[in-house]
Write a structure and sequence with these properties.
Layout lengths: L3 E10 L17 E12 L2 E7 H6 L7 E12 L1 E7 L13 H12 L6 H17 L2 E7 L4 H14 L2 E5 L1 E2 L12 H15 L5 E7 L7 H13 L4 E6 L3 H10 L6 H7 L7 E5 L5 H10 L2 E4 L1 H6 L7 H6 L3 E4 L11 H14 L6 H15 L17 E4 L5 H7 L5 H11 L5 E6 L2 E2 L8
Parallel strand pairs: 1-4, 5-6, 6-7, 7-9, 8-9, 9-10, 10-11, 11-12, 12-13
Antiparallel strand pairs: 1-2, 2-3, 4-14, 14-15, 15-16
The protein binds guanine and zinc ion.
Length: 442
């Protein structure tokens, strides 16, 4: 089998860092950092990681194709735990808040996905953007149309990327053209699961959009699907916006709170990904912790839609699992670098800190753990899938100028997240193949 060795500086996390000092030097440190590292790739997996010089002396490099990425930095490919691929053309749509934005732009845009040709085209553009930004795994929302999810997985399969997606279930409070029924959403989701879940690198997420757009009968259908397919994910939105919360409680008056709606239908659990989770009561936070559900921090979206400031420390203190995500198209950028930067600023406004080791852990291994996939993606080690990003901290003149004064890895990472974007992504490897340099669009 063909063997490739990537040579560069390499950073990979073993666990969440406690702080800036919790590095590689200590026994049981949070990460491994190699100044002159070698990553051996074969059959779509990492087969070895070590010092390049040691690989040379041991003969590991003989017969291998060596790709020299020095002086750049290789990390595991970024993971995005919440993104709407069908909103790729409505980033930067001017609206006051969530419900206005949904009604004015989103529900119109998603109607276009009744056309399989449109879904195929946007899927292709969407994956180009992910790759351009260094993202190798994403948890995506399709539209209500099952064919939008077929188009997504077909494109993911072509690029050999580990992707998660689901058809949105929505049977009320939306235009006719975007409404399914409890039964049709069950049937369509079930056949998508049969078609795509576990096929190649694809995994399925059962996707009731949010409580407002689902009748009790539909949430019951979502619960039945999850019970029948416990290895699928469940994704939805929770506690994003004050108006949304009030309306949800009006529609489900018997629930103690918003989280209680999902709880009553058996939708919470370790594979449940809840976008936003900004405005939650202590009871709701306790339920998320108890059920091991994941609260997904979507900073660019939360700022753009004026939704509020995520309380990372508060949720963590109560034991809630956390992921980070772009939430395109409420979110304003396809990449994790801009997302980490905005996340940092949100936490600054709350008086909370997130150091750069914690940030980059979150965008890689942390999100893999949130998805229960850390044995396959999110770090660089023998046996892991070969999904990698190559970053250049001197990608723009301003970054290069700032790099003249940088002397530590932590400073470099912080510069990458604060000043970096897709220009800092030199290459993205998916399943061991370079995907960015070979892309067709500029
Ligand atoms: N809540 C329900 N649907 C959506 C959506 O598409 N984006 C965001 N940000 N919140 C939602
Ligand atoms: Zn969302």
């Amino acid at each position: 089998m063909e063997k490739t060795i990537l040579r560069a500086r390499v950073l990979t996390f073993h666990r969440a860092p406690f702080g800036l000092e919790d590095g590689v030097l200590k026994e049981g440190g949070a990460f491994t950092y190699l100044e002159d590292g070698g990553i051996t790739l074969s059959g779509g997996h990492v087969t070895a990681l070590g010092d390049f010089s040691t690989m040379e002396t041991s003969g590991e490099t003989s017969g291998a194709q060596v790709i020299d990425h020095r002086p750049h930095l290789i990390l595991p490919g970024f993971i995005d735990t919440h993104i709407h691929y069908v909103q790729s053309q409505i980033l930067a749509s001017y609206a006051g808040s969530l419900l206005e934005w949904l009604e004015t732009y989103t529900f119109l845009e998603e109607q276009k996905f009744a056309s399989p040709d449109h879904a195929a085209r946007i899927s292709s553009c969407f994956f180009d953007e992910l790759v351009r930004h260094g993202t190798t795994t994403a948890v995506a929302y399709g539209s209500v149309h099952a064919a939008s999810v077929d188009a997504f997985f077909a494109e993911a399969e072509r690029r050999n990327l580990r992707m998660i997606c689901g058809k949105v279930m929505m049977d009320r409070e939306a235009p006719d053209a975007l409404r399914d029924t409890a039964q049709s959403s069950y049937d369509d989701s079930k056949s998508l699961i049969d078609r795509w879940h576990g096929r190649g690198r694809g995994l399925y997420a059962i996707t009731p959009r949010f409580a407002i757009t689902s009748t009790p009968a539909q949430l019951e259908a979502a619960g039945a699907l999850l019970a029948a397919h416990p290895d699928c994910y469940l994704q939805t939105h929770l506690g994003e916006n004050a108006e949304e919360i009030r309306y949800s409680q009006d529609l489900y008056p018997e629930a103690p709170d918003y989280t209680g709606i999902y709880e009553a239908f058996g939708l919470l659990g370790p594979r449940s990904l809840l976008g936003h989770c900004i405005h939650l009561t202590d009871r709701e936070i306790g339920v998320l912790a108890e059920t091991k559900s994941v609260a997904v921090f979507c900073p660019t979206s939360n700022l753009f839609l004026g939704s509020g400031l995520f309380d990372r420390a508060g949720l963590q203190a109560q034991g809630v699992r956390i992921g980070i995500a772009t939430d395109v198209g409420g979110g304003t950028n396809f990449g994790l670098l801009r997302t980490l930067d905005e996340g940092y600023k949100v936490l600054q406004l709350r008086g909370e800190r997130m150091d750069p080791f914690q940030s980059f852990h979150m965008a890689t291994r942390g999100n893999a753990e949130a998805l229960g996939l850390s044995d396959r993606v999110g770090s660089i080690a023998p046996g892991m899938e070969a999904d990698l990003v190559v970053l250049d901290a001197r990608a723009t003149p301003a970054m290069a100028l700032r790099m003249e004064t940088v002397s530590t890895l932590a400073e470099e990472l912080f510069l990458l997240q604060t000043m970096g974007d897709d220009r800092a992504v030199v290459e993205t490897y998916g399943g061991g193949r370079p995907l960015k340099s070979g892309r067709t669009r500029p």
